[in-house]
Amino acid sequence: MSTETTAATPPNPAPIFDMLQAHQRTAALRAAIDLGVFEAVGNGPGDAASIGRHCAASERGIAILCDFLTINGILAKTDERYTHTPTSAMFLDPRSPACLASMAQFLGNEAILEPFRHLAEIVRSGHTSLPGDGTVEPENPVWVQFAETMAPMAATAAGPMARVLLEGRTGPMRVLDIAAGHGLFGIAFAQQNPEAKITALDWAPVLEVAKRNAKKAGVEGHIAMLPGSAFEVEYGGPYDMVLLTNFLHHFDPPTSVGLLKKVHGALAPGGRVAVLDFVPNDDRVSPPVAAAFAMTMLATTASGNVYTLSEYTAMLKEAGFAGATGHALLTSPQTVVIGQA
Amino acid sequence: MSTETTAATPPNPAPIFDMLQAHQRTAALRAAIDLGVFEAVGNGPGDAASIGRHCAASERGIAILCDFLTINGILAKTDERYTHTPTSAMFLDPRSPACLASMAQFLGNEAILEPFRHLAEIVRSGHTSLPGDGTVEPENPVWVQFAETMAPMAATAAGPMARVLLEGRTGPMRVLDIAAGHGLFGIAFAQQNPEAKITALDWAPVLEVAKRNAKKAGVEGHIAMLPGSAFEVEYGGPYDMVLLTNFLHHFDPPTSVGLLKKVHGALAPGGRVAVLDFVPNDDRVSPPVAAAFAMTMLATTASGNVYTLSEYTAMLKEAGFAGATGHALLTSPQTVVIGQA
Q1: What pTM was computed for the model?
Q2: d(Cα B67, Cα B32) in Å, to the nearest integer?
């Protein structure tokens, strides 16, 4: 949003009411997912009574919930019947392969929500109210759930990122996938280049999820598992490519520079690191999804943040990389920053 | 939102991410109000360091919070400085007489927020998870806070409603203000017609707030206090006008019909009742603010809801009223429904 646009707008209390009540939207979508509303709507006929029977829920509750989802553009309503919008059919009906509903489990996890109940205190102190380093604490079980539930979001970026990284490149290559999580980024790489050999690094319980996903994708023979912390384990190598996806936003720049130095040391000559992350413009308030992610980092980590392309470029240079380029992904609000060793 | 518009939109995961994270917006605005950010921004110069000093908060936390408020259109940012938008200057700076910030206390009250953490369970059962009748339980202390903090919202409707009701009418009249709360609706009536004699009915501790507001407005001599429950206390009368503001949405239609019968019995011949409330269209999904208020009633009451003009007309007829008309208020998302005795 440009400052000019904002300043020209007359005073309007509506955005204030909207923000004060916005928590209801999160609660409503989570409740609808938990109750199976989107499966029921897909089944038809879509009146509140039949949705209520499917969900073992009251007709009054279902009618108010489905009206609320319609007001928010998630469902459609004609006469007294609720139907899928294209969005809910593709992303919320559990029968759709692109269903995102599992994300509600991670984003609704108490460890992720709880800090937002003490946000003033967190703004005062400047770091999460969660113990220690927050979600980045070693072996935090939240990352097993992340790997299990957030794959649909990664799926929108994994294929396109592999295409960017493999453009004009074929043949054998060694790839280290740091903080692999669900493993989807390395898996997409292996699918697009069957001669690539991937090493997936994460805490051991998280790698179990990556292993299952690799098997499902039929590329388990191309992916080796390296359990441990990205800061402590020996990387091996040398690698032609290191993936650092959704990882550096958890840390302050000096910590990231230290890690990038370690990555640099594990790269073969001519090797590259690919940082996938939320990268705002220099104003730090646009584009909205990338810029707003800083709030999640404030609430859940000790010193994480979003970083601009200039900031990533500076960190990469300080860590010994020759240069950096940014590549927007059309299908995702995230950016790939490629550092050349 | 029309069904046609929704159905024509291509699938888009953005509204789903947005809803799953919407709770962060509520937390951010509350934190900014609690920390005094809007006073600090009004003081200038508006860089994160000086706002941080004013709020006794970290620069990191303030920068991320103020960026987030800018992304959401609440603040403006130029270079590294945050300034008021017309909206935040008028409705969030505590020095503005129209400041709405106190509403965050009521809307952020645990008794109001807590049910939203169990919304699936509430949809199943069809009524609030709060004890008994929820917020409508007798003497629930939440209504003292409501009266103290929600007056700025009522202020946008009180004057215009009195103008609608007094159009073409002058001279002595007796007015009963049921569930008077902060008293602003009766006060506006007394200000516009100094010959009106108002009786404000509410639980005794709530009436203390109305008394203070009447004194502040210089109309305390025009307002008598009638402590008790609207369902139990003798109304006295007869009255020329009964105000039922933001009250009937807490109940199911039979309960409201019972109360409207009691109101009808207290009206002089030719008297009128004025129901101020959120009144959705017959589709129950528009306009958005009025329709979405049903969710608050689902979460916090046993059987409340929003009602359409046809539904209010039917209730008024069943209670003995001759007819009903709806009057939209330009300055408020609420509607005045007038019933003729």
Answers
A1: 0.92
A2: 12
